[in-house]
Amino acid sequence: MTSPLFVAVDTPDLDRARALADAVAPHVGGLKLGLEFFSAHGAPGIRAMADVGLPIFLDLKLHDIPNTVGKAVAALAPLSPAILTVHAAGGRAMLAAARAAAPASTRIVAVTLLTSLDADDLPTIGVAGDAAGQVGRLAELSRQAGVDGIVCSGAEVAAARAAWPDGYFVVPGLRPADAALGDQKRAVTPRAALDAGASVLVVGRPITDASDPADAARAIAATLG
Ligand SMILES: O=c1ccn([C@@H]2O[C@H](COP(=O)(O)O)[C@@H](O)[C@H]2O)c(=O)[nH]1
Predict the structure, then answer these.
(1) Suppose 217 and one of 24, 131, 142, 210 were both cysteines; which one would form an S-S bond, judging by CB atoms 3.0 to 4.6 Å apart?
(2) Ligand 1 pocket check for 185: Cβ under 6 Å
(3) What NCBIfam families does UniProt report for this protein, alphabetically (predicted)?
(4) How many angstroms is it from 225 CA to the middle of ligand 1?
């Protein structure tokens, strides 16, 4: 079975990204490339990373008016990402435009509430209530808009799975028990997220900042088996 573990290759250095990907490839199911890498290398960089032979998760978190997001998704289609992110807060029409513009082979997943935010942050961004409520509302909007799933933290994925049994749930902000949180605030372990119903587990710095990234990826993968 394909591993649900995707490594977040967050670096602007193409040689380092490629070396990291080659090192961890035997232990992961895919590569997540986001704003840091894409801003530095664009489409040619994504093609270079696709040569590793793993599915590519393009985490660009698109958030704009429906026409702009639809055209951006269409422009990205030649890269054939397995997963592409948009922000659920862009609204129903934007989500539907993203889904309509993507190839069938690309899963469109909508970011609900960033895992770097917690209850203290919610009033500062105009959200009343708690994280679970906000994720639940945006998950339902995403489902109704016809996208494939959502991005949420491991703390919300069980409820999301219960409400949307065939949804595709991407969970970042994961940390092995002894790992530094960094800027993540709603972290759980990769195993806990998998048990709660995650489809994809995203792990970055606990692997990429390790002295031996391949061994760190192998150790996390071993907890999932
Ligand atoms: O809510 C979100 C959405 C995306 N991310 C991305 O996942 C990785 C996490 O990296 P770590 O080093 O494991 O913290 C990173 O690329 C984020 O852009 C997220 O963390 N939370």
Answers:
(1) 24
(2) no
(3) PRK00230.1, pyrF
(4) 23
Q: Distance, CA 111 to ligand 1 centroid (Å)?
A: 11
pLDDT in tens, 1-23: 799 999 999 999 999 999 999 99
85 lines ligand 1 (CB under 6 A): no
Q: pLDDT, tens digit, for every residue of 19-63?
A: 999 999 999 999 999 999 999 999 999 999 999 999 999 999 999
128-145: pLDDT as tens digits: 999 999 999 999 999 999
Which residue's C-alpha comes closest to atom 4 of ligand 1?
Answer: 172
> Which residue of the set 61, 130, 185, 215 is catalytic?
61
What pTM did the predictor assign?
0.98
For residues 144 and 92, what is the distance between their CA atoms, to the nearest angstrom? Answer: 8
- Ligand 1 centre to CA of 134 (Å) is 18
- The angle that helices 92-101 and 66-76 make with each other, rounded to 10 degrees, is 20
175, 155 in Cβ contact below 8 A?
A: no
Query: Is 64 tagged catalytic?
Result: yes
Helices 35-50 and 14-24, axial angle in degrees (round to 10):
60
